[in-house]
UniProtKB/TrEMBL annotation:
Organismal lineage: Bacteria, Pseudomonadati, Pseudomonadota, Alphaproteobacteria, Hyphomicrobiales
One Pfam family here: Abhydrolase_3
Entry keyword annotation includes rRNA processing: no
UniProt name for this protein: Alpha/beta hydrolase fold-3 domain-containing protein
GO MF annotations in UniProt: hydrolase activity
Domain Alpha/beta hydrolase fold-3, chain residue ranges per copy: 34-230
Gene3D superfamilies: alpha/beta hydrolase
Length: 269
């Protein structure tokens, strides 16, 4: 499979934004259009760190727009969410130029990007943004407590924890800690959000919060595809090593993407 990416400028209400656009060598007439948000624990990261996941999404049949929200992440919530919501709106309006006027819209993210993707799905429901077909969450940061069993098992919350530091930086003030867009695991109303693909791993510190969120979405009547990769994956850090050889789980994750696009009808046009 051949996937190429180009650097382009995306016009949005936030101004011109540099993005990477990934396209595979085989696309359906109206391919899914995906806003992809990289990880980085709200403290860093870049589209280059998200190259592997963006490429797998493109190989699954999508046109992927990968954006860098790191500048917005230097400010507390809701700066990054507002910035990425403007990008999502730009994709919604400009889908004809980026893919097809009939392309279904998705948002995807890993780790901190997964937090933003989940928050965007909630906001899109609440403000009635049309056309969001699905949310793709890979080991998303959803629970600022960093005290789940999987966190304790990975000893990820011990000492200089990048995720605890990232949460403290992102939330800024205690009053925002329970805002559902900032910490989706605390959201009490999940019905009506876009269908979700939730992917985590046995050794992922965010495993428990991912599984819990998938369960609560399902109980709220949301269509959910959930997958837990077995064995030692090194998630979430493993998918940000863009220069490394493709990992063994790459083919499985690409398959999850393809299946999700098919189940939501995104590859049927």
């Amino acid at each position: 499979m051949g996937t190429v990416w180009t650097e382009e400028m995306l016009d949005s209400n936030a101004g011109p934004v540099p993005v990477r656009i990934y396209r595979g060598d085989t696309l359906v007439k109206a391919p899914p259009l995906v806003l992809h948000l990289h990880g980085g624990a709200f403290l860093g990261g870049s589209p280059a760190c998200g190259q592997l996941i963006a490429t797998l999404l493109a190989e699954a049949g999508a046109v992927v727009v990968a954006a860098d929200y790191s500048n917005a992440a230097k400010e507390p919530f809701p700066a990054a969410l507002k910035f990425t919501y403007e990008l999502l709106g730009a994709l919604c309006k400009g889908r004809g130029e980026l893919a097809s006027k009939k392309s279904p819209l998705f948002v995807a993210g890993e780790e901190a990007g997964g937090n933003l993707a989940a928050g965007l799905a909630l906001k899109a429901r609440d403000v009635h943004l049309g056309g969001l077909q699905g949310q793709i969450l890979l080991s998303p940061m959803l629970d600022p407590s960093t005290a789940t069993g999987s966190f304790r098992k990975a000893e990820a919350g011990m000492g200089n924890c990048q995720w605890a530091d990232g949460w403290n930086h992102y939330l800024g003030f205690a009053s925002t800690a329970c805002h559902p867009y900032a910490a989706p695991s605390y959201c009490m109303r999940l019905s009506g959000v876009a269908p979700a693909l939730v992917v985590t791993a046995e050794d992922d510190p965010m495993r428990d919060e991912s599984v819990n969120y998938a369960r609560r979405l399902r109980e709220a009547g949301v269509m959910v595809h959930e997958h837990i990769l077995a064995g030692k994956t090194g998630w979430p850090g493993a998918y940000s090593r863009c220069a490394a050889p493709r990992p063994d789980w790459g083919g499985a994750v690409r398959g999850f993407f393809t299946e999700f696009f098919q189940e939501t009808g995104a590859l049927l046009h």
